Amino acid sequence: MLRHRTYVAGISVALPPEWLPNVAMRRVICHWTAGSHSAGDTDKDAYHILVEGNGRLVRGRPSIALNSGRVKPGYAAHTLNCNGGSIGVSLCCMAGAEERPFDAGRYPMTRAQWDAMTAVVAELCKYYRIKVTPKTVLSHAEVESNLGIEQRGKWDFTRLPFDPTISGASGCGERLRRDVTAAMSSMPNLPVRIGRDAVWQRLLEELWPIMVRGLEAGLNTLIREILRRIR
After folding, report:
1. What whole-number distance in Å separates Cα of residue 136 and Cα of residue 104?
2. pTM for the full model?
């Protein structure tokens, strides 16, 4: 498999091929662990990819494949009621942080982490053909407003400790998507294409609701016509 390698602040962030199963995925949701700058055991169970304080990448235990389509046993439960088709990427940071008044705690999010994360998300978007939109590349704090799925007050990210000029879920989310888009444009033109099976899987997932609605409408029409004729 041909792979390209992207460097952010001297750190290699290319994802190994074995981290990228050939499945259809719809979105990437970004988090922080609310822990230290190192990935703990609980963190590795909850996310697919983690970024430590120095920008080093750690693979979570669940495969991305377990979150494709309907979630399967052992999946990464990173976002309440929004794990199917979602890749979970998390920064290891923000233990003891408080939203109001804002306090980043002993392990604030670092710029190295952020840059590594946006490069990782860019590579995921290229590989899985995910268009960068507020519904497909977003932070945990945006899930409720952008996707309409309640998240019980999650605020990762409503503040960026390395840039105090940005605040709020929308502001941080726009910065996320802007940086991911910039990272994608700077990558060599060597996107790894997901296989034919995954493309068909994604197509079926998108068309199935339309097909079901069409069948229901056709059945209703047929029933009405039968009832009309037997009266």
Report:
1. 27
2. 0.80
